[in-house]
TrEMBL record:
The keyword Transferase appears for this protein: yes
Lineage: Bacteria, Pseudomonadati, Pseudomonadota, Alphaproteobacteria, Sphingomonadales
Protein name (database record): NAD kinase
Domain of life: Bacteria
Pfam families: NAD_kinase_C
Length: 262
């Protein structure tokens, strides 16, 4: 429940789509909102991509508050149904909280540069040219695959397991599973390796073999770094985020339902 949320200190953010802007105008005519910098919670109008953008914006500004998404996009996996201003405050009061912790990526470039970024959905390593990538996979200091020959590889959180990970034939993870999905993208060698399910506490390292001949980029959600030599991943507990869902429409239920979709 959202008992600690002050409904008088709600922020509203909306994507630039016509649908989201119309919904924003409707809500602003019914409620007074405060700037995100002063809010105790934020209402997010848009699709999943805009929700991710908003969560990253809060992480970047070190100002994280619970986010209640209202779908004005397409899929809306991270969102609730938009029903207008009626009973919005009541819906917020009854909403269920789900805490999610992003992945922290530390990417080291071929030139020695270092980049830090967080990923709420997944971190992906992708080949930059027609040459396949060759990537060494290490878990908790122990090399598990000396060379994965592939188009790429990704690590997905439970919240992101139904996104790119699912498209790459990775497993769907329940939100409270405390697991990560390690999924290859079009693997060539080992030909039959389909990935692994790892404990959330795992520390994962990717090293790019032949980086000059076979350059690889690293992507943390929507942030890309090119020509990486190594990528180190671990869960960032100190950057925990909170999503709010209507009862019966929570993310864990959607994850279960997705596994029975035909």
């Amino acid at each position: 429940m959202t008992g600690d949320i002050d409904v008088k200190r709600l922020a509203l953010v909306a994507s630039r789509t016509d649908r989201a802007q119309e919904a924003a105008a409707e809500l602003r005519s019914a409620f007074n909102f405060v700037p995100l910098s002063r809010a105790r919670a934020v209402i997010v109008l848009g699709g999943d991509g805009f929700m991710l953008h908003t969560l990253h914006r809060m992480l970047d500004k070190d100002r994280v508050v619970p986010a209640y998404g209202l779908n004005c996009g397409t899929v809306g996996f991270l969102m609730n149904k938009y029903r207008g201003p009626a009973r919005l405050i009541d819906r917020l009061a009854k909403a269920r909280r789900f805490d999610i912790a992003p992945l922290r990526m530390r990417a080291i470039g071929n030139d020695g540069s270092e980049h830090i970024a967080c990923a709420i959905n997944e971190v992906s390593l992708l080949r930059e040219t027609r040459q396949t990538a060759k990537i060494e996979v290490t878990l908790d200091g122990k090399t598990r695959l000396k060379e994965l020959v592939c188009d790429g590889v990704l690590v997905a959180t439970p919240a992101g397991s139904t996104a790119y990970n699912l498209s790459a034939n990775g497993p769907i993870l329940p939100l409270d599973s405390q697991l990560l999905a390690l999924t290859p993208i079009s693997p060539f060698r080992p030909r039959r390796w389909s990935g692994a399910v790892l404990a959330e506490r795992s520390r994962i390292t990717f090293r790019v073999n032949e980086p000059a001949k076979r350059p690889v980029s690293a992507v943390a959600d929507q942030k890309e770094f090119r020509d990486v030599a190594e990528v180190h991943l671990e869960i960032a507990r100190e950057n925990q985020l909170t999503l709010l869902f209507d009862p019966g429409h929570a993310l864990d239920e959607r994850i279960v339902a997705e596994q029975f979709a035909v």
